Amino acid sequence: MNKQTLLIFSLFIFLFNHSLCLDPKYEACVPKDCGDGHNITYPFYINGLQEPECGYPGFGLYCNNSSPILRLSNTNFIVKEIDYKKRHFRVQNSKILSNRTGFCPSMIKNITLDPNRFKVDEEKTTKMLSYSNCRHNMSLDLERYRVGSCDNKSVEYVVLENDVNLKKLTDDCGGGGKVVEMFVDLGGGGGRSVVVDGGNYTEVVERGFEMEWRAAECDGCQQSGGRCGFNTTAFQFRCFCPDRPHRVSCKSAKTNTKMIIIAVLGGTVLVFALSTTIFFIHHTFKHKASTYFSSKDKSRELEDTSVYFGVSVFSYAELQDATQHFDSSKELGDGGFGTVYYGKLRDGREVAVKRLYEHNYKRVQQFMNEVEILTRLRHKNLVSLYGCTSRRSRELLLVYEYIPNGTVADHLHGDRAKQSPLTWQTRMKIAVETASALVYLHASEIIHRDVKTNNILLDDNFSVKVADFGLSRLLPNDVTHISTAPQGTPGYVDPEYHQCYQLTYKSDVYSFGVVLIELISSMAAFDISRSRDEINLATMAINRIQRCALDEIIDPALGSNPEMKKTMALVAELAFRCLQSDVEMRPTMNEVLEVLKGIQVKESDGDIEELTVSKLEMPRPSTKNEGVGLLKEVITASPISVTAKWHSISSGSTTGNTPNTSVCN
């Protein structure tokens, strides 16, 4: 009897205390710091110390040497100051601070800011441009901008975007190599009169720069005693209050007190109602609870060794070992959503491990999307997915077959281009195999949405493996398009998709047209070191084709064989058709593949003179004057920014027909 009384009393105390407990999300979102004394709270949150729901998506920080780190475009920035009232914060590039004595501007990577989250403080901030691989014999009036010979080979120069000598430096040096843009804060209320040169650039860059954030307002929630957060499942702001989460702000203290009193009384009544039966079910409950938790542990263990969507589920520890703790020397490349590392599994297989930047709602969607798509596809020219980590893993990791020969971009205008340029026959093979992979995707009702040379991998035999399906979308066969926020890579994005938000199979056709021009020219699709009207490769190519000046963009390394030049002209005409502004005038990928195969066969048979693209059954671009000919159509260029005109907080999509406009009909 004493045991029964003690158990009832303990249960009563438990229920009483539980009724007074704070909501777990409210407790979880208490401000934290990395050790430097600066409290981190909404819209920021610290990965590992706070739940992602305590901040806004894309605002996750990491602690490193007691400093909060924000990762932008695969670059670490130290967060130095946060002004929550003004919604401003200051950051410094960690690479600059760690290399004060030997810092060269070319060590820095260009960054892209998500306009829906961050904006540079234009009142205090400007851009500093760095030029590398410049000539040694520059004019004397440009010498003060000279940084020096950073790697004992190239010469670097720095200049502000508003400097009077910017154009001269760009003309004399800009086309020679890499151009890096760095945001710098000049202080002094804007400091527009301050000059940056080769002597003081390090000091200026070390100041960092200020940004303002764009996230849901938090004032009302904080003033009501709540802690701001975000529901990553519903993708909505939430105010975490002591009693429970609310939509905008917490309810009054009186209401909370009433709720607590009601909860206490209810708990008391419940205790006495249960007292007559608690003793008899005690042992049974204990047994069942033990069985339940044992079963739960086994299910979690099983999750790490079973399958997900038909592929193996790897543990985080195994992939950490395979990549030697994600050693930077193992990096194969990085993209918009993650860094790819070389790894070797315990069974000896060589793999490529993609490590997603953030574990938020959007990244989980892309993770699941890529897994689901790749597991349903089997094609010799598509990369194979070996497996992934569980969705509950501390990080989202995808495991692919390792393709050892880099990307097509590497071989055309990257690090491998100087070693041994691709022959024209190899480039034709790449074009045919990539087109074959896209035809297969379209037949499977899938739009890739990010076709580019960086996503076309090559094995040792230069066979194609198309990769990166994080942005891919399923297009049911009973709809003509998907209406969704434009995403993709500048220079490759279908201009009509960007303008009208209508994603179709022919959006991939446009991107493939850019790839064809890259294969002909060995130029990057988007390069700010080129003159303003030629930054976009598609615009440049169309201009040269219309002026019958294709020779100006053909890669000199390909030689001058007349038969080969004829083949290139045919491929260029095909690319021109793919780049048509009018979606209806573009061919399908199936038609593109047939044309490429026809060119390839005729070239090998020596009958290239007999073939013209115009003879093949494909949509013809419309012209205002039929006598003008095919190559006089005016083309709209791919946008240089794929988010500039999209202001919605959500990138949700709809299918079917969107309302007609004067442009998008």
UniProtKB/TrEMBL annotation:
Annotated SMART domains: S_TKc
Report the superkingdom from the record. Answer: Eukaryota
- Which InterPro entries does its entry note? Kinase-like_dom_sf, Prot_kinase_dom, Protein_kinase_ATP_BS, Ser/Thr_kinase_AS, WAK_assoc_C, WAK_GUB
Q: Which GO terms describe its cellular component?
A: plasma membrane
**Catalytic center residues:** 450 (proton acceptor)
What keywords tag this UniProt record? ATP-binding, Cell membrane, Glycoprotein, Kinase, Magnesium, Membrane, Metal-binding, Nucleotide-binding, Phosphoprotein, Receptor, Serine/threonine-protein kinase, Signal, Transferase, Transmembrane, Transmembrane helix
List residues binding ATP.
354
Q: According to the UniProt record, what class of enzyme is this?
A: transferase
Q: Which CDD domains match?
A: STKc_IRAK
Q: Where are the transmembrane segments?
A: 259-281
Give the molecular function GO annotations: ATP binding; metal ion binding; polysaccharide binding; protein serine/threonine kinase activity
Q: Signal peptide span per the entry?
A: 1-21
Q: Which reaction does this enzyme catalyse, per its entry?
A: L-threonyl-[protein] + ATP = O-phospho-L-threonyl-[protein] + ADP + H(+); L-seryl-[protein] + ATP = O-phospho-L-seryl-[protein] + ADP + H(+)
Chain sites annotated for binding Mg(2+): 455, 468
Q: Where is the Protein kinase domain?
A: 326-599
How does the record say this protein sits in the membrane?
Single-pass type I membrane protein
Report the EC number(s), separated by commas if there are several. 2.7.11.1
Q: Where's it found, cell-wise?
A: Cell membrane
Q: Name one Pfam family in it.
A: Pkinase
Which PANTHER family does this chain map to?
LEAF RUST 10 DISEASE-RESISTANCE LOCUS RECEPTOR-LIKE PROTEIN KINASE-LIKE 1.4
What is the protein named?
A: non-specific serine/threonine protein kinase
Read off the lineage from the record.
Eukaryota, Viridiplantae, Streptophyta, Embryophyta, Tracheophyta
